[in-house]
What we know:
The chain is an alpha+beta fold. It has helices spanning 3-10, 94-113, 120-141, 201-210, 290-293, 298-306, 313-328, 333-338, 360-365, and strands spanning 15-18, 39-42, 45-53, 56-63, 71-78, 81-90, 152-161, 164-170, 174-180, 187-191, 218-221, 224-227, 237-238, 272-277, 282-288, 351-357, 373-377. The strands form 3 sheets. Strands 1, 5, 6, 7, 8, 13, 14 and 17 form an 8-stranded antiparallel beta sheet that branches. The chain has a 7-stranded antiparallel beta sheet with strand order 2-3-4-16-15-9-10. It is globular and about 60 Å long. Mean pLDDT is 88; it is low at 1-37.
Amino acid sequence: MPHASMNLxxxxxxxxxxxxxxxxxxxxxxxxxxxxxILSKDGxxxxxxxxxxxxxxxxxxxxxxxxxxxxxxxxxxGPFGTFVGVYDxxxxxxxxxxxxxxxxxxxxxxxxxxxxxxxAETIQTAFLRTExxxxxxxxxxxxxRPQVATTGTCCLVGVxxxxxxFVASLGDSRLVLxxxxxxxxxxxxxxxxxxxNANLEAIRQELKELHPNDRQVxxxxxxxxxxxxxxQVSRSIGDVYMKHTQFNQEPINAKFRLxxxxxxxxxSANPTIISHHLQPNDSFLIFASDGLWEHLSNETAVxxxxxxxxxxxxxxxxxxxxxxxxxxxxxxxxDLHKIDKKVxxxxxxxxxxxxxxxxxxxxxxxxxxxxxxxxxxxxxH
Length: 381
């Protein structure tokens, strides 16, 4: 691999770094950053119980199931507000690692061009620029690492700018808002993100309308709907073999090669973006890869966060999902905990959770952290 390409795919491989200069952070999985958030490890689970971002507190956790961790995530806080990204990779870690290293940088550069103003167009352009960069990298590596063409990542991004939350999504990670219900003491769960998974009727219909002459655009295989019988998600960064004809050929694995010519891309990197004006009753946000939602409902997750101390919220959610995964297989959590990566994937997926607590006094004042925050959960294992 060319040296420059290796750098592109390795810059994000730091465990929970807390530094703008990621090259100076430790690469040891037992390292701890400065500030109030300390990295802890429990088997294949890494977590930060509590820390501070520009708009409140946060809690963060990731558990590994695959041989190589395919989830990546980040929290960035600075003059613009707070940026959260959860990247659920598939087919390998390359696309998620690339996005972890480039999406926020592209967002920063594009926002700077408009004097720091954040809009839906800012975020959309950052996504598309990141897609273009990854596609160029695949082209560069085609002769030496063609399998990178079959890696991709779901992306879930939240940006708090002034008093507006922008939510951008590709794939099937999910953002759920916990909002207080009047003076009842209760909290309601409101899903803010849009999911792009062929198991949803609306997504199948969307694909059929985009490809009216292709009766096999979605195929049911073993009880699961897949685009061209291959992949469940209909939007992602990467997966260029489903977007560009020149990458859907040898030497990629035969299972990814389509039997007919590709007239137009089957997958899109254009995110669904919504904006939500933050209200005083909005209490917290749960960003998570689909590995969490496979086992917990929106309401259950919100109740767990609401009913317990803030510290350890993300860790608590991950463990609740693992307990449920163990229960479904009629085994004890303690036994699941002993199963090593790769084999663990038969019981649950990689899971990433970030809980963002909202301090409306800080949000209304437009407060900025004294030191910009940059945290990446990019674990190289």
